[in-house]
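Help wanted!
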Amino acid sequence: MRIGIDAMGGDFAPLEAVKGAIAAKQQMPDIVPVLFGQKEKILACFKELSISENELEIVPATEVIEMSEHATKAIAHKKNSSINVAYRYLADEQIQAFIGAGNTGAMLVGSIFSVKAIDGVLRPTIVSLLPKMSGGFGVLLDVGANADCKPEVLNQFAILGSLYAQHVYGIQDPKVALLSIGEEKEKGNLLIQAAYPLLEINDRIHFVGNVEGRDLFNDKADVIVCDGYTGNIVLKLCEQFYYNLSKMGVTNDYLERFNFKQYGGTAILGVNEPVIIGHGISKEETFVSMFKLAKDVVKSRLIEKIKQSF
Amino acid sequence: MRIGIDAMGGDFAPLEAVKGAIAAKQQMPDIVPVLFGQKEKILACFKELSISENELEIVPATEVIEMSEHATKAIAHKKNSSINVAYRYLADEQIQAFIGAGNTGAMLVGSIFSVKAIDGVLRPTIVSLLPKMSGGFGVLLDVGANADCKPEVLNQFAILGSLYAQHVYGIQDPKVALLSIGEEKEKGNLLIQAAYPLLEINDRIHFVGNVEGRDLFNDKADVIVCDGYTGNIVLKLCEQFYYNLSKMGVTNDYLERFNFKQYGGTAILGVNEPVIIGHGISKEETFVSMFKLAKDVVKSRLIEKIKQSF
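Answered by r_m:
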C-alpha cells in the first residue's frame, strides 16, 4: 500500500515528516511511504538521519504552500507545490492515500479540486475524535471545513460520521446525535431544529436525538454532528484544555487520550480517496499515527462504503 | 439592600435556598434576603434549621414553576408562582435584585415580561465566567438565552459584556473579541463575519478582533462574544470537563476556579433590574455566592451604566 506524505507540511517539516515516514515504514511493513516535496531538502534530512538515498521514494515538487496562505489561491497557483503534486498522484491512483500536516485549508481544497467529492456528497467534512470517559472514542463532525451548514448537510454528516465510526473504529450500530442546547426535539438553534426531523427519518443512521455540551465525553452518542464553526471551537477548546493541564503537570490516563499525537489526524470524509490532515505541530510520532490511520481507512474500504450510501 | 430569592428554585429547594439566605444574611449584614415561595414549606425548613419564624421575611407564593416546564407558558399561566410574584416585587422596587436557581428559561422570560428589556437593548443576554490561566476571570456571552443571533445583537452583547466586566469585575478597558475559527477578519461563520465590521467601528468597546476556541482561557480577550447556541455548548463542556476530572480526583487551584459554586450564577444583562440565575444543582454555598453577585451588581450601578450606553 503506497501512502503519500507531504514532506513539506507542518511546522517541523521536512525533518519530522521524513522521520515519521521512516518510522512508519519500519513499524508497518505493508506500507510504502512516498515523500512529496523539495528533493534537496528531503535528501538533506536523509543525510542528517544517515539513511541512504534509496531508502524512501521521493516525488519532487518545487513549491511549498505556506501555513498562512489563502488555501484556494495557493492550490490554484502553486501547481508544483507538494500538496498539488501529491493530489495528482492520488487522483491517478499512483498512491492509495495521502497524509499531510500543512495548510489545512489547502489540504481540503486540494482534495475537492483533485480527487473530488463523492457523487451525492454536498460537502466533504473533517472529523475529530472524542475520548469517552468509559474508554474508546466518539466522532465529532464537522470540525472546521464547513463553518456554515444547511440542515441537509448535517444529515449527510450523520451518515459519513456513522460509516467512519463503524468501519474505521469498529463501533457497531453507532448512535448518532445532534449537538444542541437541550435534549428535546424543539431545542437548539434554527439549524439544529431544522436538521432534527431529517435525521429522525434517516434510516441509514441510528439517531438518538440531541445531546448537549456536557455529553461529548459520555456514552449517549458515538457520532455527534454540528456545523464546522461550533465543532472547531469545541476541538480547539479541548486541545487547549489538555495542553494547559499538561503544562501544569496535571495528567492521567484519561487526559492523555486528548493528546492528538496518539491519533494523529483527521480524515476528510466524502472525497473519492483517503486523505488524512494532521496538526501543524506534528512530529515523528504523530506522522506515524497518520500513516496508521490512512492504512486503516484504506483497509476498511470506507470510501467504497460511503459511495454505496450516496 | 433587599434581595429576593426564589425559595422554590433549584433541585434542592426550598431547604438549600433557605440555608443560603440565612448564611448570606450572616455573612453580609448589608443585605436583607426576602424569600418567595410556599410559606408552609419554607417554615418547615425554618423549623428544621431551628430558626424563628421572624428570622427572614417570606412573601407567599402558592405555585411553583417546575424545571421541565415550558418557560413562556409557565410564566403566562402560573401567576402566583414564586418567580412571577418575585418579579412583581422587583418591578415595584420592593426588592433591589432577584436571584433564583429554578427553570432558567422562566427566570429569563419572567424578567423580560416584568422588569422588561432596557430601551434600545434588542435581546437581553446571560453570561458566564471564564477562569483565565493568568488569574482573574473573563466573560463569555451569550451562553444560552439567544440560540440564534443577528450581527447587531452580537454587537450589543459586546457592549453589555464590556460594561459587566468593567463595573462588576473591575477589568479596566476590557478587551472584547468575537469567538471565531481563525483570527483574520474574514474568518468565521457568516454571523461572525457580518458582526466583525460592526464591532470594529463600535467606539464603546475595545475590540481586539477574533479569538479561537483555544483562546478562551488566555489573556487575548476579557470579553468573548458569540451566539447563545455556541456559548451554551462551551459552558456545558467546561462544566462537565471540570466535573469529570473532579470525579477522577484530578484537581488543582486552577481547576477549582471552574467550580460554579464559587461564582454562583450568571447575571441577565440588558433588563431593567438586577437578576441572577443560578445552577439547578445549587446548594447553600452557591446561593450565598449568588447573593454576593447580586449585591455587587447593585452596588456597581451596572444597570444605570447600561442605560446610559443605550
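OP: Thanks! One thing I noticed: Chain A touches chain B at residues 133, 144, 147-148, 179-181, 188-190, 192, 212-217, 227-230, 232-241, 244-245, 248, 250, 252, 254-255 (CB under 8 Å).
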